[in-house]
Write a structure and sequence with these properties.
By secondary structure, this protein is of the alpha/beta class. It has 13 helices and 17 strands. Bound molecules: S-adenosylmethionine.
Length: about 400
C-alpha cells in the first residue's frame, strides 16, 4: 500500500521540474483571457502545465478530454478571432499551486488513512473531477463527481464522520471550506438549483464578482459562472442616467452590474422566486443600492405592466427563451424608444434567421402599440455553448423613433 502512495508522489514531484511536449491552443495575448476562461469552464485546461508567452502569442495547454480536430472546430465556432492548435514544450506548474494535484494528494492521503489504497485505486484516481465552481468558500462539484461504483463501495464501507472528513479534505484541496454537488437545474418556473450539500452547515455564499457583492443560498438558487463574460459586457455598457427594467433579475446577476458599473440611474428588478429575492435584497443592502434598485416581487406578467413607458432599457435574461415578455418589454420602453437585451438559446445554423424573425416580431408588437420605431439589431453576443450546436446568445436591439 505504501508503495503506491510513494509511486504517485514520485510521478508528481518528477513532473514538477520537467518540460514536456504539450498540446496547446495558440492565440494572440489580448484574446488569452477569453480562451483561458473557455478552456477552464469546459474542463479542458491542462493545469499541470504553465501557459507560455511567445512574442505576441499566448500558448494555453489543453488536456485530451476532446480530440484536437473537434477542439479546433469548437474554437472556430466559438471565437471570431484566429486560434491554432499546436504542440510545444511547456514547463510544469508547481504542484502546490495546482488544485488538481492538491485534490489528487488529498484523495490519496484519505484512502491511505482508511487503509483503502489498493493497486486499482490508481485508475480511479485518474478519474477525479476536472472542473468545479468556487462560490465564496463553497466548492460545487459536477454531478458525476465521486459517484462511480468504486466510490459507492468505498463510502459504503466508511462511517459518517469518515466521509465528512473526506469531503472536507476535498473542499480544502480545492480552496474551500464547504462542499456541494451539482444536480440538474430543476425544470420548475424558478429554474431552481438542486445542489446537494456534502459538507458544511448551510449553502449561503457571499462573494465579489467584478467589484459587485453577491449573496444567496447556492443550494436553492443557481448561479451560472459561465455567464461571466456577459455580466462583464453588460456592466461595461454606459447607462448613465438611464432607467432600466431587468425582467428576470434572479439574485442580481445583471442588475447589480448595471447598477454599479454601467451607472444606471435606477433599476427595476423583477423576480418571482422568494429564494432569489432574499439574495437580491441582501445584495441591494450590501452594495448600498437601496435608492437605485427597486425589487418587484412576483410574476413579471403582473409586475411589468406597472412599468410601462418608464424604461430606457430592458434586460430579458431567461433561457431557453424570454419571448413571454417581449411585448411587455416594448411597452416598458419610453415612447422615444430605447434598448432591449434579449437572451435566447439558438441553434448555431439558425442565428441569422432567428435575428430577423425576432426583429419582425418586435416590430409587430411596437406597431400594435402605436410605436412607430425603427428597430435594428445592433449586436449579437455569443455568450457560451448551451449544448452542442446551441448557443446562448444575447441580441442587443435598438428601438428609436423614425427621424
Ligand atoms: C435563469 S435566472 C437568471 C440566471 C442568469 N441569467 C445567470 O447568469 O445565471 C432567471 C430568473 O428569472 C426568474 N423568473 C422566471 N420566470 C419569471 C417570471 N415569470 N417572473 C419573474 N421572474 C421570473 C427565475 O426565478 C430566475 O431567478
Amino acid at each position: 500500500m505504501f508503495k503506491v502512495v510513494a509511486l504517485i508522489a514520485d510521478i508528481m514531484s518528477d513532473s514538477n521540474y520537467q518540460s514536456a511536449m504539450t498540446n496547446v491552443v495558440l492565440c494572440i495575448q489580448e484574446n488569452g483571457e477569453r480562451v483561458h476562461r473557455f478552456l477552464q469552464e469546459n474542463g479542458l485546461l491542462e493545469t499541470t502545465r504553465k501557459p507560455k508567452s511567445i512574442g505576441k502569442m499566448l500558448a494555453l495547454p489543453f488536456n485530451l478530454q476532446v480530440n484536437k480536430k473537434d477542439l479546433e472546430e469548437i474554437l472556430q465556432d466559438t471565437f471570431d478571432f484566429e486560434v491554432q492548435i499546436d504542440s510545444i514544450e511547456l514547463e510544469a506548474t508547481e504542484t502546490s499551486n495546482n488544485p488538481h494535484a492538491r485534490l489528487h494528494r488529498a484523495v490519496v492521503a484519505w484512502l491511505s488513512s482508511q487503509q483503502m489504497l489498493e493497486n486499482e485505486s490508481e485508475n480511479m484516481l485518474s478519474d477525479l473531477p476536472k472542473k468545479w465552481q468556487l462560490l465564496g468558500d463553497l466548492v460545487i462539484l459536477p454531478e458525476a463527481a465521486f459517484i462511480s461504483e468504486y466510490w459507492r463501495e468505498i463510502f459504503n464501507k466508511t462511517r459518517r464522520h469518515e466521509r465528512d472528513d473526506f469531503w472536507f479534505n476535498v473542499a480544502k484541496a480545492l480552496g474551500g471550506e464547504r462542499l456541494a454537488r451539482q444536480h440538474p437545474i430543476a425544470k420548475d418556473k424558478y429554474r431552481s438549483s438542486q445542489t446537494e450539500l456534502l459538507v458544511g452547515e448551510n449553502g449561503w455564499v457571499e462573494f465579489l464578482d467584478h467589484g459587485v457583492k453577491f449573496g444567496f443560498d447556492a443550494t436553492k438558487v443557481m448561479f451560472s459562472a459561465g455567464n461571466v463574460t456577459e455580466r462583464r459586457r453588460i456592466g461595461s455598457i454606459t447607462m448613465d442616467g438611464e432607467v432600466v427594467v431587468d425582467a428576470y433579475a434572479g439574485v442580481g446577476y445583471y442588475t447589480l452590474h448595471m447598477a454599479l458599473r454601467s451607472k444606471a440611474k435606477h433599476i427595476h428588478a423583477c423576480e418571482i422566486n422568494p429564494d432569489s429575492i432574499s439574495g437580491l435584497s441582501w445584495a441591494q443592502e450590501a452594495n448600498g443600492f437601496e435608492q437605485s434598485v427597486t425589487v418587484h416581487s412576483g410574476d413579471n406578467q403582473e409586475t411589468l405592466p406597472n412599468l410601462y413607458g418608464q424604461a430606457d432599457r430592458c434586460h430579458l435574461g431567461l433561457l431557453p427563451s424570454s419571448e413571454a415578455v417581449w411585448d411587455h418589454a416594448i411597452r416598458c420602453l419610453k415612447p422615444k424608444g430605447g434598448w432591449l437585451h434579449i437572451h435566447m438559446n439558438v441553434h448555431k445554423n439558425n442565428l441569422e434567421e432567428w435575428t430577423a424573425e425576432t426583429l419582425e416580431t418586435l416590430e409587430k408588437y411596437a406597431g400594435s402599440h402605436g410605436r412607430n420605431w425603427q428597430i435594428k439589431a445592433a449586436h449579437l453576443e455569443r455568450v457560451k455553448w448551451f449544448s452542442p450546436h446551441v448557443w446562448h446568445v444575447v441580441l442587443d436591439v435598438e428601438c428609436k423613433e423614425h427621424s
